[in-house]
């Protein structure tokens, strides 16, 4: 690890001013990913600004939403009782996203900003990585790419967004609150992440020095059921091959409202608005869910290593929707996601990581 200067921030304004003026500065919160990348030589900030003492933690409830401070830990958000009632898919994504030890340290803001899990990005000995070294190429396109994206990709990058939490938050239309030198602004999470295009090193809309201060999470109506399904090679300590966060309101056998987002397949957390349109007002049947799932992969651009995800993503969508509608295997009243032994192979039970 290269030498760096350590600074402890005393207030958000000073932290933002310092980071804005110094192109070699980076914020430090939980550090669960950042320090690993520094040790591996992938990141090399010249100055770390420790923001952990800033008053940016805690959860506030108001008007059918939660305002979650950026320094709130994943475990603190897991413990929020309203999520079990009106945002279960968020709670499940947190539980499946990290071990208890990591959840007690990792912050919500840091989770949303975690860097790509691309093996080529994280290995400095690989010369071709446009995300790490713009203009050098993308080794994943012609190399081993099983964990990479099929949606939102470009000729310059196919790295997948790794955040489990971001998937249900995108489905819920969460909002990121940001502080910069020019003041505060709010950005919908659906607009926060950027597809790689020809600038894969630019992953989000944050300007230099801007700091996430909080995340606004809308709560679902009491009648809605939600869940997060994560398909992975093993039940613990593994990233998603595919995942889906979904919420359904079903009345008299018809889908009244639907929300759907996918992880493990997109360069950003992937909101499936076309699928939501298919679901809205349609019968809550497997046939409807399959039709919705087909729209999810329209425009997919797999490489040989990711071709299997086209089918797997559709099956993941159908499975979570069947579970929420109570028509899948082993589902029904009081069953489905987070309710018991109905978790199937590769899905993972909350708390398993």
How do the helices and strands line up, and which of them pair or pack?
Blueprint: E1 5-8, H1 12-21, E2 25-28, H2 34-39, E3 47-50, E4 59-62, E5 65-69, H3 74-78, H4 81-86, H5 88-97, H6 100-103, H7 108-112, H8 139-142, H9 166-171, E6 175-180, E7 183-188, H10 189-192, E8 211-218, E9 225-231, E10 242-251, E11 254-263, E12 270-271, H11 273-279, H12 286-296, H13 308-325
Parallel strand pairs: 1-3, 2-3
Antiparallel strand pairs: 4-5, 5-8, 6-7, 6-8, 9-10, 10-11, 11-12
Helix pairs in contact: 11-12, 12-13
Explain the overall architecture.
It is globular, with a radius of gyration of 20 Å. Strand 10 (242-251) and strand 11 form a beta hairpin. The longest helix is centred in the last third of the chain and has 18 residues, at 308-325. Among the domains are: 1-53, Uridine Diphospho-n-acetylenolpyruvylglucosamine Reductase, domain 2; 225-325, Enolase-like, domain 1 (2-Layer Sandwich). By secondary structure, it is an alpha+beta fold. The chain is built from 13 helices and 12 strands. The strands form 3 sheets. The protein has a 5-stranded antiparallel sheet. Strands 9-10-11-12 form a 4-stranded antiparallel sheet. The protein has a 3-stranded parallel sheet with strand order 1-3-2, covered by helices on one side.
CATH topology of the domain at 225-325: Enolase-like, domain 1
Low-confidence stretches: 332-353
- Residues in helices, as a percent range: 25-40%
Dominant shape: globular
- CATH homology superfamily name of the domain at 225-325: CO dehydrogenase flavoprotein, C-terminal domain
Query: What is the N-to-C order of secondary-structure elements (H for helix, E for strand)?
Result: EHEHEEEHHHHHHHEEHEEEEEHHH
Number of helices: 13
Average pLDDT, all residues: 92
Q: State the distance separating the first and last CA atoms.
A: 29 Å
Query: What portion of the residues fall into strands of 2 or more residues?
Result: 15-25%
Task: Report the count of strand segments.
Answer: 12
Computed Rg: 20 Å
Q: Give the biggest sheet.
A: 5 strands, antiparallel
Give the structural class: alpha+beta
């Amino acid at each position: 690890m290269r030498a760096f200067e350590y600074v402890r921030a005393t207030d958000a304004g000073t932290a933002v001013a310092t980071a804005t003026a110094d192109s070699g500065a980076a914020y430090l919160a939980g550090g669960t990913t950042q320090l690993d990348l520094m040790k591996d030589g992938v990141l090399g900030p010249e100055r770390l600004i420790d923001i952990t003492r800033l008053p940016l933690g805690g959860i506030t409830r108001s008007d059918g939403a939660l305002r979650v401070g950026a320094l709130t830990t994943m475990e603190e958000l897991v413990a929020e009782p309203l999520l079990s009632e009106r945002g279960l898919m968020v709670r499940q994504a947190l539980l499946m996203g990290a071990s208890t030890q990591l959840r007690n340290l990792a912050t919500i803001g840091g989770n949303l900003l975690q860097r790509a899990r691309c093996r080529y990005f994280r290995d400095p000995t690989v010369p071709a990585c446009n995300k790490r070294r713009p203009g050098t190429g993308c080794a994943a396109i012609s190399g081993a790419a099983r964990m990479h994206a099929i949606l939102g990709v470009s000729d310059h990058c196919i790295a997948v967004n790794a955040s489990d939490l971001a998937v249900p938050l995108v489905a819920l239309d969460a909002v990121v609150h940001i502080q910069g030198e020019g003041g505060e602004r709010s950005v919908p999470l659906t607009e926060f992440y950027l597809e790689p295009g020809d600038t894969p090193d630019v992953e989000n809309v944050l300007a230099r020095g801007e700091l996430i201060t909080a995340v606004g999470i809308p709560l679902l109506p009491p009648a809605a059921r939600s869940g997060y399904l994560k398909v992975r090679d093993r039940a613990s300590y593994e990233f998603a091959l595919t995942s889906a966060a979904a919420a359904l309101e079903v009345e008299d056998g018809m889908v009244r409202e639907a929300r759907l987002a996918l992880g493990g397949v997109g360069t950003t957390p992937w909101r499936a608005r076309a699928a939501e349109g298919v679901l809205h007002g349609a019968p809550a049947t497997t046939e409807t869910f399959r039709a919705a799932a087909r729209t999810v992969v329209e425009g997919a651009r797999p490489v040989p290593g990711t071709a299997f995800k086209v089918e797997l993503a559709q099956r993941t969508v159908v499975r979570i929707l069947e579970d929420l509608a109570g028509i899948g295997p082993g589902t029904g009243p009081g069953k489905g996601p987070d309710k018991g032994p109905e978790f199937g192979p590769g899905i993972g039970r909350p708390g398993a990581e």
